[in-house]
């Protein structure tokens, strides 16, 4: 049977009829397999959910304990039979608990990579290549212009700014799942051992990362004693980017707004967002990582989803890998 009869895009998401399940469905379904906890992939209201322990915990933190009818944890590498399909979860290196999902059906092996990156990140298990016939890849940064720099160099820019403006409170925008914890961990790995102040909305996820063995150092709530703005002079405050557009951010001393995102490569985006200090730190593959991964796996077919589909499909065709865009809708990653 042709692969596109075994796994295909349906209105609710990528569907496997042999196992009667969807991967990262965008609307409530009977059975969902979830790659990771970002909100566009991990929605509430499914009947049964199969995901890693961490992804299930993260979904419970974000959506409440009743986020689905029945939750089943999958350990990395364990094969689980679902009807006529055998599925297994493998580290994707994207955020804590993130997985690629391998699906073996009718002698064809698919790998749905979800979101993934190849660069080092001590806050989650590193990406593992999964041999497959059909590789389904994201293409968030799927244009040759996207090259992500060394994240430690970006953290150095923050240190330079702190030296240059020692009185100003440095507000670092970072999405609450994954990026915030990675930025904090990067600061620690670069030798920053002072307290880091966090917006209240990050507290539960930071606590959860710590409970899973990711040391984030001294974290404190970003509150000002007696509303004195000089309280956090020269401090680093990490919060979701949305919080920095609010009045909350203007209470700090001459706030300097930074934003950690792969999109900060695009100067226009930084400008529009009023970002004074763009930090190019991404939890997705850049163009060289995407193309190197495809070469490494050398699958019989590549299916490309969410992002710059056409450019990556074109690259695949030019390099001898049959490819097609999936045109799945509803994925706008919150995590970068
Ligand atoms: Zn994601």
From TrEMBL:
<keyword id="KW-0269">Exonuclease</keyword>
<keyword id="KW-0436">Ligase</keyword>
<dbReference type="GO" id="GO:0004527">
    <property type="term" value="F:exonuclease activity"/>
</dbReference>
<dbReference type="InterPro" id="IPR050698">
    <property type="entry name" value="MBL"/>
</dbReference>
<dbReference type="GO" id="GO:0016874">
    <property type="term" value="F:ligase activity"/>
</dbReference>
<keyword id="KW-0378">Hydrolase</keyword>
<keyword id="KW-0540">Nuclease</keyword>
<dbReference type="InterPro" id="IPR036866">
    <property type="entry name" value="RibonucZ/Hydroxyglut_hydro"/>
</dbReference>
<dbReference type="InterPro" id="IPR026360">
    <property type="entry name" value="Xnuc_lig_assoc"/>
</dbReference>
<protein>
    <submittedName>
        <fullName>Ligase-associated DNA damage response exonuclease</fullName>
        <ecNumber>3.1.-.-</ecNumber>
    </submittedName>
</protein>
